[in-house]
Design brief:
Blueprint (H helix, E strand, L loop, with lengths): L1 H31 L5 E5 L6 H17 L3 E5 L6 H8 L6 E6 H10 L7 H4 E11 L1 E5 L7 H9 L6 E4 L5 H13 L4 E4 L3 H9 L5 E4 L1 H9 L3 E6 L25 E9 L4 H14 L3 H9 L3 E2 L4 H22 L5
Parallel strand pairs: 1-2, 1-3, 6-7, 6-8
Antiparallel strand pairs: 3-10, 4-10, 4-11, 5-8, 5-9
Helix pairs in contact: 1-10, 4-12, 8-9
């Protein structure tokens, strides 16, 4: 009996030592990383909301990590160009900030993608989420969603809508709205929200969905008008705007989101550290104020939480994309 207890105790001690070794290894991995500059790939152009988010945190992350943070803008292919760069990175020091399109919707939009979002990319932390607004050119004779729909139906398909990129939440939300409202229009994609907003202000496109701050300068200049928000409730900063549900389109509900990802080979301990550091920075008063001013709601959290969120968005929008028949290649 004593020998049995000794054997059990020995096994327990060995297990504890092994567990301690694992924790020690994880702690070492965190302590040793980064050992060189960290590159964060932004799959949209300078001045976009994704670019703003990364630049708001880059100096503070560099101070925490003791290494420079290098931002690389690689716009193209609806965000897939940048995300493919991250998926194929092997240096252990390349991250990227992705969004709905290249992280969740791409497999439904393209016959073939250069990477598998679920297998080749590791979710790290959601950075922000935000509703879009339905914005129209100021010359359009409509003050409500209902008036706009009536006017748009009478245009015989001679309308354009802009978006920040193929397969983005803004693009797919508009496709859903057009289907629900019985409107025909041509998609004009851009790399980021600034040029997409400018297209509406200049009349190149008559309408768009995007985050409100990108449109507000054009609203102030009487070049554009906001009609509704895509969230379930009215945001505090946009209380005067009805939701799409209140405007008669309950199915047109969507939230844009983004977050940091790495290649699948990125160690879990590193992903956890990055998530923890970013979550803390998203609580920083200066960072939060900058994001608030841009209409972006800071989120943060753990890698597993971000992964679950992405998977849920895939389950929600995959059938919608298939039903709408949206194909980009």
């Amino acid at each position: 009996m004593k020998h049995t207890r000794r054997r059990v105790l020995a096994h327990v001690c060995l297990a504890a030592a092994a567990a301690g070794g694992l924790w020690s290894a994880a702690a070492h991995a965190q302590a040793a990383w980064p050992s060189r500059p960290v590159k964060i790939v932004v799959p949209t152009g300078p001045g976009s909301s994704l670019d703003l988010i990364v630049r708001a945190m880059s100096d503070k992350l560099a101070a925490r990590w003791g290494q420079p943070v290098v931002i690389e803008n690689r716009a193209g292919a609806g965000g897939m160009l940048g995300m493919d760069l991250v998926a194929k990175a092997t240096d252990g020091h390349t991250l990227g900030i992705g969004f709905n399109g290249p992280l969740a919707y791409a497999p439904f939009l393209y016959a073939k993608t250069p990477y598998d979002p679920a297998k080749d990319l590791k979710a790290i932390v959601m950075t922000t989420s935000q509703p879009n607004v339905l914005a129209i050119n100021a010359d359009v004779p409509a003050r409500t969603v209902g008036e706009f729909v009536a006017w748009a139906r009478a245009q015989g398909g001679k309308l354009n809508f802009s978006s920040l990129g193929n397969g983005s939440s803004a693009h797919l939300t508009m496709e859903l709205f057009l289907a629900e409202a019985g409107i025909q229009a041509t998609h004009v994609p851009f790399n980021g929200s600034p040029p997409a907003a400018m297209a509406v202000a200049q009349g190149e496109a008559q309408m768009t969905f995007m985050v409100a701050p990108a449109m507000l300068p054009h609203v102030s200049n009487n070049k554009a008008r906001l009609l509704a928000v895509t969230s379930a409730q009215r945001p505090d900063s946009l209380k005067s705007l009805p939701t799409m549900a209140e405007a008669g389109f309950p199915n047109v509900e969507a939230v844009g989101w983004n977050g940091l990802v790495g290649p699948a080979s990125l160690p879990d301990a590193v992903a956890q550290r990055v998530a923890s550091d970013v979550t803390e920075l998203l609580k920083d008063a200066a960072v939060r104020q900058l994001l608030d001013n841009a209409g972006l709601t800071a989120v943060g959290g753990r890698p597993e939480e971000f992964r679950r969120f992405i998977d849920a968005d895939v389950r929600r929008w995959g059938p919608v994309i298939t039903r709408l028949g949206v194909k980009l290649g």
